[in-house]
């Protein structure tokens, strides 16, 4: 399955966006991106109670609230015919099991901030324990720092660091406040016979509107593919 994961920052307006830019225009731009990329699986974090409408996809019937906004998982109509099973794990994750693939996909939004390393590790352990399948892929805004990866691997998870930063507040001036730094907050971990490939950070798709250049979110979207090795 081709996937796209994106923290949408509560549909907040970027500081460099036109003054009349609103949630409806953000939703339309998100829809256009998904139609253009045509992923089989879309994982959203930080939604403001509004799930972007995409006519090629259905929403898995769960929309839990995390520490900031809501999570939502969309799949194509063809994938929905598999009747994927959702499972909400506290406020951390939305797990969706695809029986035809023997695969569980966890859409996650883990605790933010420095000092929350132990909490994030615990959340990942809970997600892994809750998965009904051995084949598990965890995708989304993990809020993890590179220094945490070793402990996460010790949980039995494989790390799939994206090819470039998924947060870069030096290039993406989404807000005027806060420090400028790069990070790999949005990323992928897996377990079992899962293969993650073709990862691409969508940091080259700023909008150009009314002479202004801006991004839709403070996070860059991440795309890639996921499959189970014994089903190739």
Protein traits:
6-stranded mixed beta sheet; Deoxyribonuclease I, Chain A; 4 helices; alpha+beta; 232 residues
Chain-wise SSE layout:
Blueprint: E1 2-7, H1 23-37, E2 41-47, E3 57-59, E4 70-76, H2 77-80, E5 85-89, E6 93-98, E7 103-109, H3 117-130, E8 136-141, H4 149-154, E9 158-160, E10 167-168, E11 182-183, E12 186-191, E13 194-202, E14 207-209, E15 212-214, E16 221-228
Parallel strand pairs: 1-2, 7-8
Antiparallel strand pairs: 1-16, 2-4, 3-4, 5-6, 6-7, 8-12, 9-12, 10-11, 13-16, 14-15
What does this structure look like?
The chain has 232 residues and is of the alpha+beta class. It has one domain (2-231): 4-Layer Sandwich (Deoxyribonuclease I, Chain A), CATH 3.60.10. It contains 4 helices and 16 strands. The chain has a 6-stranded mixed sheet with strand order 3-4-2-1-16-13. The chain is globular, with a radius of gyration of 17 Å. It starts with a strand and ends with a strand.
Task: State the low-pLDDT regions, or none.
Answer: none
Percent in helix = 10-25%
Our Rg estimate from Cα atoms comes to 17 Å
What overall geometry do the principal axes of the alpha carbons give? globular
Q: Return the CATH class.
A: Alpha Beta
- Strand elements, count: 16
Quick structural gist:
The protein contains four helices and 16 strands. The protein is of the alpha+beta class and 232 residues long.
């Amino acid at each position: 399955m081709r996937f796209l994961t994106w923290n949408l920052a509560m549909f907040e307006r970027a500081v460099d966006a036109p003054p009349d830019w609103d949630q409806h225009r953000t939703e339309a731009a998100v829809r256009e991106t998904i139609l253009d990329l045509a992923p089989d699986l879309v994982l959203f974090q930080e939604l403001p109670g509004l799930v972007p409408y995409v006519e090629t996809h259905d929403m898995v019937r769960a929309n839990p609230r995390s520490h900031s906004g809501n999570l939502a998982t969309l799949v194509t109509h063809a994938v929905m015919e598999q009747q994927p099973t959702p499972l909400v794990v506290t406020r951390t994750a939305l797990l969706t099991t695809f029986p035809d693939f023997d695969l569980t996909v966890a859409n996650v939004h883990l605790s933010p901030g420095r000092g929350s390393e132990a909490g994030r590790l615990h959340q990942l352990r809970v997600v892994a324990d809750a998965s009904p399948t051995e084949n598990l892929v965890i995708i989304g805004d993990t809020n993890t720092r590179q220094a945490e990866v070793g402990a996460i691997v010790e949980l039995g998870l494989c790390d799939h660091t994206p090819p470039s930063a998924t947060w870069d507040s030096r290039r993406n001036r989404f807000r005027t406040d806060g420090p400028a730094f790069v990070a790999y907050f949005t990323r992928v971990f897996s377990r079992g016979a899962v293969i993650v490939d073709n990862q691409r950070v969508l940091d080259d798709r700023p909008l150009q509107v009314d002479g202004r250049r801006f991004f839709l979110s403070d996070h860059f979207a991440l795309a890639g593919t996921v499959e189970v090795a014994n089903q190739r």
